[in-house]
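Hi, here's the filled form for the chain we discussed.

Project: internal
Contact: R.S.
Residues: 462
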Amino acid sequence: MTASPLAPGWLSHPDDANALDAAVWPASARRDDAGAVTIAGAGLPDLAAEFGTPLYVVDEVELRDRARRVREAFRSAFAPLGTDVEVYYAGKAFLCTTVARWVVEEGLRIDVASGGELAVALAAGVAPGLLGMHGNNKSLAEIDRCVGLGVGAIVLDSVVEIDRVARAAEQHGRVQPVRLRINSGVHASTHEYLATAREDQKFGIPLADAAAAVAAIRERPSLRFLGMHSHIGSQIFESAGFGEAARRLLALHADLLAGGEVPELNLGGGFGIAYTSADEVTPIADIAADFARVIGDECTALGIPVPTIAIEPGRIVVGPSTVTVYEVGTIKDVLVDGEHVRKYVSVDGGMSDNVRPSLYGADYSVRLANRASDADPALVRVAGKHCESGDIVVHADYLPGDVAPGDLVAVPATGAYCWSLASNYNYLGRPAVVAVRDGVARVIVRRETEDDLLRRDAGVTR
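And the returned structure, exactly as it came back:
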């Protein structure tokens, strides 16, 4: 069989449409003797029967291992330079109290970006000193709460926040540690919506304005300047952009040392993961080594000590740990050009549980989850059940041609920015999140019910 002419150029016709690509699926993913997919020893059909679909299934060991590997890779790479690395888990990727506890237990801190994310971390028992607070438009209430709690660092995203945070710190009798977010001008190779260091966007301040802003911070006794913060984007596969951002920031860092301490440099996150077999991911150890080489060389050239480095990975920790399970409802063979067929496989979720394909054009993979099949592979487009033609879960992949209503399909690498961006469009309740370890499953976020949705409607009279 050859690839369908309707398939994108990057998608190869599979030799086996049942195979689970190790680069995309959790390391524990297997097919059992009946052909069903298992994650961490638990069968996806059994989980679907017990907890319903759509269903996010998180491999706890995978998530923990990835968090620990990131921390160890960066600390090992920078240890020869005589400095340490603080790793903040980017809570925006996916945050619940259980995951917050896991990452802290693995030696990470947590980056939060709203009062709600802060509340989740606190409810998990995370010490405020282990938290960093982001956001381009923090409310006065959020700032006051962070300062009052003793949050470890607040990232100042604009000049106006200098005064706001300083006043809150004065009122609480505290000296608040702060970072300053800088637009380095480095244009990451990623989707337009994911590039966050370009000049014409909402985050941070221009590099040219940074020295004056730091001087203003240092004039406020209630603030302690930790260093600069940079984030060049998300889903980035190469390290060159991070290196260039580091060079630009370190030049400023060296100048700022003349006016006082600059103990750290935060280079953000955005490390990419594989969503399809076409994605070539740089191992995190190689990324860490590249970071250390560039920063070490640049600090030597500038004649300055290597600062403490901070990074903020999210997707690379949680993304590959999770698969989403759906039940197939309707199937349509659509004749696209009068000759070639695209098989539309509609499932019981969609853009309400994974908006990334609609928002970014993101690509995902899909496999039958309840059985294996020796039917010839057919090009499919997995569609959701929402009232939007753009409600697509998987734009293009191959499934066995006998996929049928009632089958289960699983989409891997859905741990990041799926549940966290989920909505109630068409009044669908957001799915449950189930954690699996050693074949045992437990709910860590329960499924929303219709009663949950109606409870907020002030017009309900029952």
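Let me know if anything looks off before we file it.
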